[in-house]
Amino acid sequence: MRDLIVVVDTQADFMLPDGALPVPGADAIVGPLADWLARRTAADTAAMVFTFDTHFADTYPTSAEAALFPIHCVKGTPGWRNLLDPLSIAPGIPCRTLEKGVFDMWAEDGLLAVDPRGAQPPMARDAFFLDLQRQGIDRAIVVGVAADYCVRWAIDGLVARGFSVVVPADLTRGIDRPIEQVLREDFADRPVST
Which domain CATH number covers 112? Predict the structure, then answer.
């Protein structure tokens, strides 16, 4: 079985203790995540998607997110960079990056799944995921941060689109709720497991 891997917001502002919005314990999963991704091959992985929380200093103060969190992941800053380099995954695995300005990677219209290697042209987000399903890919593995925000919304959208989802607890961290609690409270009786 080949899986879709979705790596959610593993950016410096979330993953490092001195980041603008550090997720508790996220720094402890950087090494294990890098090792896990390095072991993935084209035989077991249909594609990888790396999401980037992406904000701009001039528009963030008026966003809904600003009411909850300080500014973070400003595009082009050191805090925006992904600590897991999409270019370091096995060359045979199709890779895409997806920049999003809200918690929910599915909420914004017009987002593009971009090949960081430049081998394939950008593709509309929804068309990219639909293409995977047409290839028979129906299971996604979701890792990253934050379990109770962006990871939670990624899972919700994948399930709504017909994917079953696995979320390795040791490769995911939350702000207020760990992934086990998120799954118990938000995804009971849905095709989601740890």
Answer: 3.40.50.850
